[in-house]
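Exercise 7b. Backbone tokens:
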């Protein structure tokens, strides 16, 4: 038995063909656009290196004295004396003495 198709496609065949053609050209145009815009995105640039962490702050004089006392390099009496000397230099009191350079000696 032979089917008669009227010598062509029906309306849905033409619609499907038109939609497929539209999808194909849309994909081609999008691909060209993507390649053109991605060229300026920096594929040739090296990656940005991570920021190194900041170096630790150097220890203060008090921390160094504390460590020396803990290691046994200085005695507790020496430690107290050195802390007093440090405090005098910062203006926390002169321990009953005048600051250096302000004595009214002979002259």
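Sequence design result:
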């Amino acid at each position: 038995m032979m089917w008669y198709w009227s010598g062509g496609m029906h309306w849905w065949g033409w619609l499907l063909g038109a939609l497929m053609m539209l999808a194909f050209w849309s994909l081609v145009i999008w691909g060209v656009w993507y390649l053109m815009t991605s060229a300026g995105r920096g594929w040739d640039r090296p990656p940005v290196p991570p920021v190194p962490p900041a170096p630790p702050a150097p220890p203060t004089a008090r921390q160094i004295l504390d460590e020396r006392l803990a290691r046994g390099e200085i005695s507790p009496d020496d430690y107290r004396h050195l802390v007093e000397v440090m405090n005098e230099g910062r203006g926390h009191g002169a321990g009953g003495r005048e600051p250096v350079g302000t004595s009214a000696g002979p002259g």
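Instructor comment: The mean pLDDT is 80. Residues 58-92 form one domain.
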